[in-house]
Amino acid sequence: MKKKTISILLVLVFTLSLVSVGAGTAMAAEDTDTIDFGYVQWPGVTVKTHVAKKVLDHLGYETAMTSGSQAIVFKGMDTGDLDIFLGNWMPTMKIHFDKYSEKGSVKAVRNNLLDVVYRTAVPEYVYEAGVTSLADLQEHADKFNSTIYGIEPGNEGNLIIKNAIDNNTYNLDGWTLQASSTAGMLTSVKRAVNNEEWIAFNAWKPHYMNVMFDIKYLDDPEGIWGSGERVQTVVRTGFEEENPNVYKFLEQFKVTAPMQNEWIDMYKRQEMDPEVVAEKWIANNLDVVNQWVYGVESTDGRMARKVLAEKVSN
């Protein structure tokens, strides 16, 4: 009877060992899955994504980045082709985010940046001439050529202005939203400023445009731009369960406007590759990065803080 009991126990131990090995193999497989970041090619979001990606690279993860418009990024998360988006600027991206959030295919993790503004702006000399609000635009329609400059087609800021025109909000019926790109819009602003011409355009900060030009953001008494502006980290539904270690990092990942301003300056003004910006900034700011990875492990099970210290010292 005793031998029979021992045999049964040995079978159980062997079975549990197999389960344990299987679980370890499953975890290793999870850790080698590629973490796919989606991003919009705005300087701040571009470098921020490179910074987060580089941290995960150091921890042993396979990572990738795919750029596209907000519509493309959210659709990629909806189909499961993309995992993470660090640039959900609310409430201006509410149109796209709500569509997939209500469907249940994406979820917000946290606010990763709070000190932000996205709104229609004008050069300071136009503001000082009396255009301090969106409600003042129509009175000077001829000087603005009844045009507001936006960025890439499909951008939420463009849609906000287009809806205002269609609904005659601020008496903008008859105005035109000139879609372009960030670079194209800034070229138009630069040309107008150099000639002291009047121009209205959709601007945001943090961004180096606020250093390039003296600009003023217009009041929005009708609230078409919304309130409580913030930038969120968003993941596809199911990512948390599949990647709890990475999700913990994302829960703790937050930046400040001065940090993002520094990234944008290095990337755009100093013309550094965004991956190099990420490498240099992480090496010089381990105190901040260590807060992001508190309680996080590398793919081989080591403490993230120790792994990062080794990586940046080499």
What characteristics describe this protein?
314 residues, alpha/beta, D-Maltodextrin-Binding Protein, domain 2, five-stranded mixed sheet, 15 helices, disordered N terminus
What report would you give on this structure?
The structure is a single chain. The chain is of the alpha/beta class. Helix content is 50%, strand content 18%. It has 15 helices and ten strands.
What secondary-structure arrangement, pairings included, does this model have?
Blueprint: H1 2-32, E1 34-39, H2 43-58, E2 62-67, H3 70-79, E3 84-90, H4 94-103, E4 106-113, E5 117-123, H5 124-128, H6 141-144, E6 147-149, H7 156-166, E7 176-178, H8 182-194, E8 200-205, H9 209-212, E9 215-217, E10 230-236, H10 239-242, H11 244-252, H12 257-269, H13 274-284, H14 286-292, H15 304-313
Parallel strand pairs: 1-2, 1-3, 6-7, 6-8
Antiparallel strand pairs: 3-10, 4-10, 5-8, 5-9
